[in-house]
Amino acid sequence: MRSGVLYRMEVPHREPADIVGFDFGSKDGERACAIVGSTRGNEVQQTYICANLVARLEELERAGAFAPNKNVLVIPCVNPHSMNVGTRFWPANGTDINRRFPGNAQGSSTERVANAIMHVIRTYKLGIQLCSFNQPGDFLPHVRVVDAGPISDESLGLAADFGLPYVMSRKPSPFDTATLNYAWQASGSHAFSVYSRATDRLDVQSARQVEEAALRFLVTRGVLSDTTPVGTPQAEPVLVRESDLVDVRTERAAGFLVSSLRAGDHVCAGQELAQVLDTRNARVLETLRSPIDGRVFFLRTDPLVQQQMVVFRIAP
Amino acid sequence: MIKTIFSAALPVSERLVIRKNRIVGAGGDGPRLALVTGIHGDELEGQYVAFELARRLGERLDDLAGTVDIYPAINPLGLSSHEHGAPGFDIDLDRTFPGSVNGNLTDALAHAVFSDVMGADVCIDVRSTSSYLQEVTQVRIDEQDAGKLVRIASALNARLVWVRVPTAVLDSTLAHCLNASGVPTLEVQMGSGMRISQDAGTWLVEGLLNLLEHLGAWTGPTIQLPPPMVSTGKNVATLVAESPGIFVPKVECGCRIRPGQVMGIVADPLEGVIKQEIASPCEGMLFALRTYPMVYPGSLLARVLRGGR
Question: What is the ipTM score, two decimals?
Fold first, then answer.
């Protein structure tokens, strides 16, 4: 393993913002796979997963598990200065690095960071980004491929190699076009967004699940030896389009959100999913029910909910 | 007449409400102008413009032959808590249009606003620049809309019309979606974030009355200004910090600049040294200047319009 500063930004009155990378396997070998952790300051789980991957890959390297002439890069934290002060976005001006890709070497601060990261990772054939969602919620761990052009069809085929329960394809919204994942695919790499259950807290169980999935992917793609011990998936991944998910919203009420369900639970059509309670007297204002048989793909975990909020996304 | 165009319950004894003031002239039916502002909660310049336009029209309803809809607060929760985006959502509301009636609260809100503005003859979206800058009042127009919008912008008393090359990420702004749906919409950037520049606001109100006259909906007094400078990105020089430190300006926003003239410095408070002198690369008009002193490499310091009068 080698480590080094991939990009340094001098900032006022603080130590420089250093983005550190760890690379494994053949130093001058084929740039096989890059793994990027947090781009936001609250993506602690994503950095935690990367830190564990650094430890696991170091062990595997010592054990001779890397295929000859293959190189893997891990960047646990793209935005250390935000993480150190507990802000999700760039501390100087509140901008989101993951809306600044592919970046610009002469542009704004966050565009410079994005450009520097892209300059390094675009040379890798495969890319894994550990992502978070902008709503407080519990997701089924899954791999997501945003449709960024012809390369995405092939990426979708490769995504099953993670062995996570779901592979999701998504049609890009305008904002997607400025994300790391989209820019990475547009530069010619197969880029995957991998979602864990948590963002600003450590969920050790789902972190292990994602770590295993990343290592399994490296084994299947021939980067690591096929004797590398990685868990076997329980079932074939289900391919789902984001548009196939059925949303359940609070239609009439706001208040306390009470549910005993978790992401991954199976539900039946008509089954009660949650209740919305009046914050003054705990009276039931609305009962949310599943319109279909399926599996809870996402559920909102904020204890308060507004009217017209998507609380559940059910995978058929 | 105050009308509610969107309402949704919040958890504790409150509703999120989007309202508009519909002002109908005594002169009967006529064109409809929509004035939208407050999409970003830290941009307050439009608050004064909304107030002053409603006040001026209210005093002279006999001169109005048409309808003016004023939407002062598209992001009321952000405005009340100094947040750029929608509090609790980590979402820039101006990246959610045209919205969706079946989506999340922010999508449904965007859909309600978009639907209500649809059908207007012209829409003006009043924005402040970020709270880090001061800017000369300017109209920003996407290149593909320039043919139809520059003429409308000329009526607004803006000093500058900036025609930009659009990027895909801006396809979900209110202005883009309305223009794509046939409602000519101009985005006005002015002043500074978290502030009200009263003079600039008053001039924009004069511009809005000019525009109403231009639409055939206003017979009251107007003030005509020289037409704006029309710029493309090619004749805008952008200057950014290359060193961290504090930016100390040496000129004022809106002034004429000579080639080589120092517009400010980036200084290091610890060592007491100047890290960077910010000199103009050209002659022109300084139309944006940094006001927030702390800078990182890449922080925007100034924009100069080459040759601008």
Answer: 0.90
